[in-house]
Amino acid sequence: MSSVIDEVPRPSEKSGFGSFESSTPRSLIGGLSAAAAWSMVAALTAFWPDKLESDWAYTGSFAIACGVLAVALALAAFAGVRFVAFRRLQRLSPWLFALALFFVAWEAVTAKLGLLPLPFFPPPQAILEVAIDDWGRLAEGIFASARLLATGYFIGATVGFVTGVAIGWSRLAGYWIHPVLRFIGPLPATAWLPLAFFVFPSSFSASIFLIALATGFPVTVLTWSGVACVKSAYYDIARTLGATQRFLVFKVAIPAALPHVFVGLFMGLGNSFAVLVVAEMLGVKAGLGWYLQWAQGWAAYANMYAALLLMALLCSGLITLLFRLRDRLLSWQKGLVRW
Amino acid sequence: MVAAIASDHAVRGSTLTLREVSHRFNFEGQPLPVLDRINLQVGRGEFVALLGPSGCGKSTLLRLVAGLDTPTAGSLLTEGRKIEAPDPSRVVVFQDPTLYPWRTVWSNVALGLEARGLLRTHRGRIEDALRLVGLTGFANAYPHQLSGGMAQRAALARALVNDPKLLILDEPLGQLDSLTRITMQAELVSLWQRSSFTALLVTHDVEEALLLAGRVVVLSDRPARIKAEVVNSQPYPRHRGDPHFVELRREVFEHLGLDEAW
Question: Fewest C-beta in 10 Å: which of B44, B61, B164, B167?
């Protein structure tokens, strides 16, 4: 039976997306198509006149930026024939091509044809304008958000980790902390918002508390379950080899629980983003969340999109960072999910 | 290299005495007796095998000897002192190698030294132990990269590095394929001969018990009682086809009540 199955021809490994990386002429074609698509964005922006009575100051600059990108992509495509390092870039070609099409459509329905209502749907050059004219305030926003998030997250993750280990390890700690955790933990951190803003001396410290709370709950629960799940044989081994309680906690329980802890840290990070934005919108007078709210107040939707874009970059960057840390610490695990 | 491991202890192994040891578990509210008045005397450097059907309570007995559990009745003594807690002089090698997956082979073997704060002074022993079990080239490998036999060798090295006076072997070769098993049986004997510890082996494999041990203690079904003792004074290495060996094997099967089936 099995030999019959083995003889059935298999689809070639070469087919599918793998081929974008492998064969040189194909990668060249891919890279050049992406470059062509971006030069189309540039040409369209530059030579198709904007809709009458609109005054987009940065239409020319946007066209130039797209043109520069197109030239860069073309050069990279040719360099890819020679240098392997550039060939890796070619994997992105399909995406760059699709993105160019998206920009063509966006440019067409906003600045050129005016099909979408203003001010809600500004053209890409309006966002470029925000980036150039208002970068100072945006940078301040990123800095403020990052500081608030980092402080709150760090406190929450630390307290959550320590609490989780305590509950998982000590029966006494479990007895006293577990009911509190069960009762208060599931409550969304944002529900504390009105209370936090008058209990704490500043909206900054109140927000730190809320972010720490949102982070702490999943970290606690998953650390606890990680410690509780450690195989009892691991402890038996260590005990017969003369391990102290301290050794059992720090060298057996905690390393064994780390995969769970990272799931908790990941969930906590997601929660902390949500709380950060709400806290900034409702109380803190700084940060990207505040900028979003402020831009909306002025009906400056281009600013809002710019801030959203930056926020997405910040969040995604932080998640990537967390995964890098995990990959480094848990390199001993088989079959890690790559982010 | 053997000398490096054994040098600190000139004494050959430790003695072990079991006096009227009984043990019960609570199973769904019902008391479940597993051991019934076990009496056993193991001399210095002796190799004793406990043989019995699976689930008869052999492993429970080993946990008591290791000090991981305390018996419901009776007492266990080593060197005349009561066993009340685990001690690095009595090391267990379990059926499952239970290496820590987050540690390399080297730091798994280092575990006992590290736990007792001896890592700095006795570092060299880890290399010795790895060489003893033939894992020198795998010091930096992670457990998931090892085969079953290699993992069990690493577990053995982790035990030997502590220079145990009593090595407790809980079916250590039970999960290995039959070829690796035969090799490892020979290796266990030569390790025991060179390192001079007392060895207590639990197994349900009659041949294995007779190949390795000087004395085979046959246990009954649960609750385990000692049914018989078979002494094998043949020199090592022993051969499975030797007429005397075959005769002893038949005798042990008879004690287990399996002579007709076999």
Answer: B44
